Amino acid sequence: MRSSSIGRRARPAYPVLLLVAALAAGCATDAGPTAAPGNSWQSPSAPATGAQPTGPATSAAPPTPSPSPSRTASRHVFPVRAGNVDYHPTHSAYPGTDIFADCGEPVVAVTDGVILEVSRVDRFSKRGPLGPNNGGLSVSLLGDDGVRYYGSHLSAIATGVDAGVRVRAGQQLGKVGHTGNANNVCHLHFGLSPKCTGHDDWWIRRGVVWPAKYLDSWRKRGNRAPAAEVTAWQRRHGCPKAPSGSAAAG
User: Fold this and answer.
1) CA atoms of 224 and 87, how far apart (whole Å)
2) Which helix (H) or strand (E) holds 214?
3) 146 — alpha (psi -120 to 50), left (phi > 0) or beta?
4) How far apart are CA 77 and CA 91, in angstroms?
5) Within 13 A of 103's CA, how many CA atoms are on the CB side?
6) 153, containing H or E segment
7) What is the Cα–Cα distance from 48 to 22, expressed in whole angstroms?
8) What's the CA gap between 138 and 153, in Å, rounded?
9) How far apart are CA 160 and CA 140, in angstroms?
10) Residues with Cβ < 8 Å from 249, sequence gap 6 or more?
11) Residue 157 CB: number of other CB atoms within 10 A?
12) Residue 186 vs residues 73, 83, 127, 170, 182: alpha-carbon distances, Å
């Protein structure tokens, strides 16, 4: 640690010391701006059907390297802000959790991070393809802890919640709904995964580790963190290039 005081020198400073001091003055860190998402709502611009205009279902943030899990524990909050909420510890076909709450209840950012993907149009169709469009309206967030947090079947997404925008734990991202293959049941599908490509890897994004034990903690205002388990999963499996198991689950 640098001493808080500097002793007086008996002789004038050498010119080389003056040069070093001048160079050091130019090395100050520049903190970049932080975007502040708006709080207004944006619902789908057309009826939520599979016959929407063709085009990419998601917008993706510019490619950036995945951050390493934070050495300092990130704050985590429960993803649905409502009194009447329920969920089951298991899920069909792959790890994930369906969180049941009334349509319209707030869906919030689980932790601080940057929005990776946003899908504002429901392109799900029972005729297919099954998998890529199952989530309907959805948002994925890359937390500062290196974990991707995914929520789908939303009824609306907040205006200003776009790829590349920074959000804070507890900030409202959308509302519970039943878009995609939700079978007309209001709920939030919630998944934990590594970033991998960060765009359109839906078979990873939908969830690779079981979220229930983390949800249990956050619901009780605890802070159990999934980063170590997600990192360990990626070390074992890498980033699979294709789905395994059923593609029909939400």
Assistant:
1) 17
2) helix 212-219
3) left
4) 21
5) 11
6) strand 148-154
7) 61
8) 6
9) 14
10) 91, 92, 93, 94, 96, 134, 206
11) 25
12) 32, 15, 22, 21, 7
CA 115 – CA 164 distance, rounded (Å)? 5
Inter-residue contact 156 to 137 (CB < 8 Å): yes
Neighbours of 192 (CB within 10 A): 27
Distance CA 105, CA 72 (A): 31
List the chain residues with pLDDT less than 50. Answer: 1-40, 43-57, 63-71
Rounded Cα–Cα distance for residues 11 and 208 (Å): 66
pLDDT, tens only, 136-178: 999 999 999 999 999 999 999 999 999 999 999 999 999 999 9
Question: Reduced to 3 DSSP states, what percent helix, strand and coil does the chain have, rounded to the nearest 5?
Answer: 15, 20, 65
Phi and psi at residue 177, to the nearest 5° = -150, -160
What residues does 172 pair with on adjacent strands? Answer: 108
Say what the pLDDT of residue 92 is: 84
Cis status of the peptide bond prior to 62, with omega within 30 of 0: no
Cα separation, 102 vs 144, in Å, equals 29
Closest CA to 113 of 138, 139, 137, 145: 145
List 139's β-bridge partners, or say none.
118, 151
Phi, psi angle pair for 34, to nearest 5°: -115, 130
Distance CA 62, CA 59 (A): 10
Task: Indicate the SS3 state at residue 97.
Answer: strand
* Contact by Cβ (8 Å): 99, 187: yes
Query: Dihedral of CA 224/227/230/233: which sign?
Result: negative
